[in-house]
Amino acid sequence: FADAGALDTLLARAAFAAVHAPGVGLDALDEASAVRVLEGLCVGRASFRELREADLLGAMLATLPPGARASLEALAPERLRLHGGFAPRVAYAAGRPPWIEAPLQDFFGQTDGPRVAGGRVAVTLHLLGPNRRPVQVTTDLAGFWDRHYAAVRRELSRRYPRHAWPDDPRTATPPTRGPRRR
After folding, report:
1. Tens-digit pLDDT profile for the chain (182 aa)?
2. Partners of 121 in the beta sheet?
3. How far apart are CA 79 and CA 73, in angstroms?
4. Phi-psi category of 97—alpha, beta or left, where left has phi over 0 and alpha has psi -120 to 50?
5. Which residues are paired to 126 by β-bridges?
6. Is 76:13 a contact under the CB 8 Å cutoff?
7. Which of the residues 13, 14, 65, 95 has an alpha carbon 20 to 30 A from that of 5?
8. Rounded to a whole number, what is the distance in angstroms from the first to the last CA of the chain?
9. What are the CA-CA distances from residue 81 to residues 84, 90, 126, 177 (Å)?
10. What is the DSSP string of the chain?
């Protein structure tokens, strides 16, 4: 009764944030609480359509203690804004550090990758080529610029000459995003 994967993502975000802020009440969001909230939402509704419209995730967030929702957003944000303004969705999964996927050019102008949990946890970066396939997975953006960017630039600039491939990506400006073509 939520978008595919949305409940799992919310539970993983809450579990990640609860590890970095114990005692805030984020550990209250788990599968058992999802069942309790869903049972409560069923009262007075006669169809699955009405239940889908009831906003399970919003109802779960409303059960959090005061301040816990703000802690969730601060420690485990749903999206991270990059230097050029693009804000990719952060993926959370049990037992793995959070990660984002974004085109390599969106990291131009940055020397360090984004961090979550109050700056304590580096986000794993899945750097994508223009074909939206990963060219590198790293938590060390500066090391990527130093050690691997020249080879990646050489290879991809031949295949994608219309894209920006500056000599110094640390000082380059990320491309602006226009409306998506269909």
Report:
1. 677 788 888 999 999 999 988 877 788 788 888 889 888 888 888 888 888 888 888 888 888 887 888 899 999 999 999 887 889 999 998 888 999 999 999 999 999 999 999 999 999 999 999 999 999 999 999 999 999 999 999 999 999 999 989 999 999 988 877 655 55
2. 116
3. 9
4. beta
5. 101, 137
6. yes
7. 65
8. 29
9. 8, 10, 15, 13
10. --STTHHHHHHHHHHHHHHHSTTSSGGG-SHHHHHHHHHHHHTT--SHHHHHTT-HHHHHHHTSPTTHHHHHHHHS-SB---TTS--PBPEEETTEEEEEEEEGGGGTT-SS--EETTTTEEPEEEEE-TTS-EEEEES-HHHHHHHTHHHHHHHHHHH-TTS---S-TTTSPPPPP-PPP-
Let me know: does 16 contact 98? Beta carbons within 8 Å.
yes
* Amino acid (1-letter code) at residue 34: A
Q: Which two tokens stand for residue 34?
A: 């999802």
Residue 70: both structure tokens together: 């703000």
Tokens of 92: 């959370």
Closest CA to 102 of 70, 134, 71: 134
